[in-house]
Amino acid sequence: MPSEEVNRIKTSWISYRLENDFDSRLIIFALIALIIVLLILGTFLLWNRLLRRQVSLQTEKLQKELNLRKSVQEELLAKNQQITNMNTELEMTQRELNNLIDLVPYHIFAKEKDGRYVLVNESFLNFYGLTKPSILGRQDHEVFENYPKSFLDSYGEGQTEVYDQHKSFVIDEIEIPDADGNTHIMRLKKIPYFIWKSKEWGGMLGVTIDITDLKHAEQKMEELNEKLEAKVERRAYLLNETNRELELSMYKLQMKQSQLEETNLLLEDSLINLRDTQNQLIDLKSSLLLVDLLLVFPMKLTHL
Fold first, then answer.
1. pTM for this one?
2. In a designed cystine with 169, which of 86, 125, 158, 288 is the match (CB 3.0 to 4.6 A)?
3. CA 65 distance to own-chain centroid
4. pLDDT recorded at residue 225
């Protein structure tokens, strides 16, 4: 075979091989590119799925947190509403308690540990001619600044017993002038009270009772008792005198009774003597009848 033909065939083969190699490379490159694309796509899909899963988990977590927050918020709102209702009920109870305390005819007050007033009723205010703003949050020397010191000393007795020793203290009698200047005799009782919420002694509760009418009644009773005792003594004297007269009359009566008994004895003796005399007369009469019979019988015999 001629060399030219051989060269031509060789050249054709080389060209064919080159073309085939280029096509193979293209296919390989295409396959590699396809594999890379598929890997990228798979990775993207996997990453997308993972992201969706993560987003779903995060969404679910956020939803749970939102539900929890919503539940907590609803619970807080419910508790807040409950607290509001409790505060409303507490205010109503406090108002009703104040109304009930205002209906009590005695003077009622409450103080904190430092002696400042935190509660007073209408009876207390009316007696002293005060208002709640003028007394609440103040101490005795501020409220009763126009009263003499002797009154404050007497009114403030028992502070140590109540505040320090937690014991009740009673002032049996204390004279207190009212808003019109009229003096009243009062009985004041001071009582310590315990706050269970804070578990400590809170202060003092005071109750003042007007015993003026009672003391006047006791005074009148004492006067009546004195008069009654005088009358009883007078009547006892008269009764003793009457008893003496009765004893004397009884003695005289006993004497007369003794005399009557002696007279009865004499009468009985006289009756006995009379009966004896009567019996003797009967015997004598019987003897006379017998004598008459004896006298008459012989005369009858003589006639015969």
1. 0.53
2. 158
3. 50
4. 85
